[in-house]
Design goal:
By secondary structure, the chain is mainly alpha-helical. It has one domain: Cobalamin adenosyltransferase-like (Hypothetical Protein Ta1238, Chain: A). The protein is 58% helix and 6% strand. A hairpin with a 2-residue loop joins strand 1 and strand 2.
């Protein structure tokens, strides 16, 4: 199988149900999700080096679900289509967010991305995820977007924040607070 087809040389690409320009809003949305997936792979590799096996398993599942998200956004006309991502994926993320939140110390101020390599990479994932979500919102102005994809991307950026903080905690690295921040986070209920 050849990797090149030459069919996109004129600035168009195939989507499910036809061809569109390569700068089409759906291509921007699923292309940004693909970019995010690459960063998730990099974060998973770093987590594996640090022995964070449970997090590696979560990130592997997230990579599968990101492919589902991209697939669900790749329809030229999504009306009446069968989608892959379900709302249960967001519910599972919520459980992981809660677990990672409990594993990290309380915060009262904004924190700066970084600390350990794993945490820094998860923060990159968080920001690229936010961009993917913005691209999906832009797409939703043109066509109906599968609602579980929107929910998932919104929840996923929260997951990356919680996982980044948990990675630092598990690796014994303190988060760095934004020193000019007021206290903006409430204390956890006991």
């Amino acid at each position: 199988m050849k990797l090149y087809t030459r069919t996109g040389d004129g600035g168009q690409t195939s989507v499910k149900g036809g061809r569109v320009r390569k700068d089409d809003s759906r291509v921007e949305a699923y292309g940004t999700i693909d970019e995010l997936n690459s960063f998730v792979g990099q974060a998973a590799a770093a987590a594996a080096r640090e022995g964070l096996g449970e997090m590696v398993a979560e990130l592997a599942e997230i990579q599968q679900e990101l492919f589902d998200c991209g697939s669900d956004l790749a329809f030229r006309d999504p009306a009446g289509r069968e989608f892959k991502l379900t709302a249960e994926a967001s519910t599972r993320l919520e459980g992981w967010i809660d677990a990672h939140g409990a594993a990290a110390p309380e915060i009262t101020r904004f924190i700066l991305p970084g600390g350990s390599e794993v945490s820094a990479l998860l923060h990159v994932c968080r920001t690229v995820c936010r961009r993917a979500e913005r691209r999906a919102v832009t797409l939703s102005a043109d066509i109906a977007v599968h609602e579980p994809v929107m929910m998932y991307l919104n929840r996923l950026s929260d997951y990356f924040f919680a996982a980044a903080r948990a990675a630092n905690a598990k690796l014994g690295v303190q988060d760095t607070e934004y020193v000019r921040s007021a206290e903006v986070f409430r204390k956890r209920d006991s």
